[in-house]
Every structure is written in C-alpha cells, then in structure tokens.
Write a structure and sequence with these properties.
The protein has one domain. It is 26% helix and 24% strand. It has helices spanning 6-17, 71-76, 97-107; strands at 30-33, 40-47, 52-58, 65-70, 86-87. The radius of gyration is 13 Å and the shape is globular.
C-alpha cells in the first residue's frame, strides 16, 4: 500500500509551507500505524526537500511526542511478519494536531 496519495502529499507540503504563519495548527491529514505493534503517527507536514515528516508519534512506550521522522525510516520499516507501516485509509481528523497532542500527553497514549 502506498503511504501517500498525491492529494495527501500535497496537503502535507502545503502545511509545511504554512508552518511559520500565525495560528498554524492543522488537522493531520495522515495517520500511519504498525499493524503488528503499538506505533501510531499523526502526520501534519512533509518537507519534500529533506524528505522529513512532522507530526505526533506514539511508539507505545507511554510518551507520545511531537517531532520529525524521515520518510525513508517509515517506508523502510519491517516489523513482525515482515509487515511495514500502513496508512489508515478510514481516518478522518476531527481535531487539530495540538488538540491530539494535549490529549495524548494527558492519557499517555495517542487515541485517534
């Protein structure tokens, strides 16, 4: 499965380009997850030059955090049974990234 469709990639790039604007707090258009593990990412931005995603990551250790990750690290990961990271095709964001981050900080996990 492709992690990024063209419309999602364009939205992530648009969010990256608007990062320094006042009030910038987009809804994450992309949710990724490990189908055999506890890792989940809500991605809001993508820099096509550096190939870096930005968003909220929960690796299942009780400490979700905002940060960056290389696209190649996500795409190249193979977990249990050789399965890679997948895109949640049914995900519809209903909050901004800061709202998801605040809830994750309070509960110790990302619930999206």
């Amino acid at each position: 499965m492709k992690l990024l469709t063209k419309p999602i990639e364009l939205m992530l790039i648009k969010n990256h380009n608007e990062r320094n604007e006042t009030g910038h707090d987009p809804r994450p258009p992309l949710k990724l997850f490990d189908p055999c593990g506890a890792s989940t990412w809500l991605i809001t931005e993508y820099d096509p030059e550096t190939k870096i995603f930005f968003g909220l990551a929960d690796l299942g250790h009780g400490f979700p955090e905002l940060g960056s990750t290389l696209r190649s690290d996500i795409e190249g990961y193979r977990g249990r049974y050789g399965l890679g990271i997948e895109r949640d095709r049914g995900f519809t964001p209903n909050k901004t990234l800061s709202m998801y981050a605040a809830e994750a900080r309070d509960s110790g996990r990302l619930a999206a």
